[in-house]
Amino acid sequence: MKTRLKLLGLLAFLSLSSASLLNAQNSTNPPLRITRGGVDTIYSANHIVLGVTSPNAKVTVNGEGVKVYKTGSFGWQGNLNIGDNELRISSIVDGKISTKILNIYRSTAPARRPVREEPKYELIDTTFIVETLEGAYFNYGDGTDRLGGAKVSFLDEGIPLKVVQEYANLYKVQVSQNRYYHIPKSYVEPSDKEIKLVNSGNWRLTGGEDRDRLTISLGAHLPYVVRQELDPNAIIVDIFGARCNSNWLTQKEPFGIVDYIDLEQVEYDVLRVKIVLKSRSWGTRISYDRGGNLSIVMKHAPAPTLEGMTIGVDAGHGGPRSNGAISISGLKEKDLNLDMAYLLKKELENRGAKVVLSRAKDVDVPMDERKKCFIDADADIVVSIHCNAGGSPFAVMGASTYYKWIHNRDLALAVLKRIKELDGVGDFGLVGNFNFSLNAPIEFPNILVETQFLSNLPDEERIADPAFRKAMMIKVVDGIEDYLKLQE
Ligand SMILES: [Zn+2]
Question: In terms of CATH, what superfamily is 22-106?
Answer without folding.
Answer: Immunoglobulins (2.60.40.10)
